[in-house]
């Protein structure tokens, strides 16, 4: 892969707080102090993925994921964008026979998210995911957002109330739902449901939020709201977004990775990828010659 613009200081900080020892877990902070930040949130290293039928959909990808930046993954249909994204929070574990190789290191702890010691359920709380089609649970708005907190073992009503409100505010939907928190999530519009799903992903304060074509089922107004929201969120959470829409990648992302046939062909600052791609395949794709 060509990384045309990056030099990364991998110096780690040693200031990570000790794990809570209380019976009831604490909420992790949504915004860590600057001293605890690392320029790198994750490292995808020599990563390959095989579906259960033996097909290798991802081929030895190396990619840094920068902290509190939006990384867009683009490329032609079938190149492996969603497969890579879903690997980052162990979605493929839900189907037997799928296989990962290599590492996905979460910084600053250096934990390998696809290693045998990592619990996929906990990984999904640290690396949240929002899908193409809004998919709220058949529950109330409140319970949708509280779901991840309950999985995390948080039971205190006051803690859950506060975290639900915070997540709904961060997802820019609080004002629209604050008077009907116990109404069905299905009564919301498509755009509201998608922002609710973003709130659900944000509630456990993940380090990374994955977005798989989050606006492809939305109209232009709802799309613009979600794009604004994603940009605002990148001040507090690292975002990786898969999109078919190159204008969207150019508009909202800081870094862009171009994938082709399972390989990450080029990765760099979004501006550079779209104005001065180094790899001829990237250039062909962004100039519309294929894909
Ligand atoms: N469950 C599966 N079993 C076997 N192969 C699969 C499976 N899901 C996807 N693939 C294959 O893996 C490759 C990558 O698919 P993936 O969905 O990640 O591509 P994509 O770039 O996200 O495509 P699109 O832009 O069309 O959504 C494709 O060749 C696809 O056919």
TrEMBL record:
UniProtKB keywords: ATP-binding, Nucleotide-binding, Phosphate transport, Transport
Stretch forming the signal peptide: none
GO molecular function, one term: ATP binding
Gene3D superfamilies the record matches: P-loop containing nucleotide triphosphate hydrolases
Recorded coiled-coil stretches: none
ABC transporter domain ranges (all copies): 42-286
Region (Disordered): 1-31
SMART domains, alphabetized: AAA
Protein name: Phosphate import ATP-binding protein PstB
Provenance organism: Sulfitobacter dubius
